[in-house]
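Quarterly update from the structural biology core.
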Amino acid sequence: MAEVLRIGQVFGVTLTTWRGRWEARFPGVALEVVAVADADQRRVLDEGSVDACFVRLPLDTTGLRVIRLYEEVTVAWASKDHGIALYDELTLADLEGEDIRSEVTDATLLEAVFGDAVLLVPMSVARSHSRRDFVVVPVTDAPTTGIALAFRPEADGELLQEFIGIVRGRTVNSSRSTAQPKAAPRRQNTPRRAGAGRRPSPGRGRR
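Predicted structure, tokenized:
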């Protein structure tokens, strides 16, 4: 049976580059990426349905190993006809009195398109939808969102460590990687005859 590494992915996290590097280094091991809702990220880890999961913090990480990766800016995301479209950046005080939603669903998107709702979401979530009829404005004093790779200690193994190395930018030549290319055989030096390979000085041998 072929080996498989299952990685959970909350919405907004892009694995394209990491997946490409994995396939190049470990063509015999399938990397299965599983879409995970924010509300289910702890559950899939507890159930063991994934070997590791890219999670969005805050999250109850009791009993998990967590590798923090980066922070995401929070943005106000609304219809381009909304008043926030007039601003390059906003503060939370600027949004007082607005109909704020923090979860992206079909319903909240409709409320934003046809109503006055403002979605307060991580930047990657807004970019992933890529809607031309929406505007994205950074909220300078809103809490950032942490992205991390979490896994159960019992799921830790060689394949998972290789994937973590790829995420952290470890190259194939790293001493910790098992996917190192074989070293090219060293060329053996053969004795050379005296004077062999020397170019004659200009004019030597001429009369």
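Residues 74-138 form one domain.
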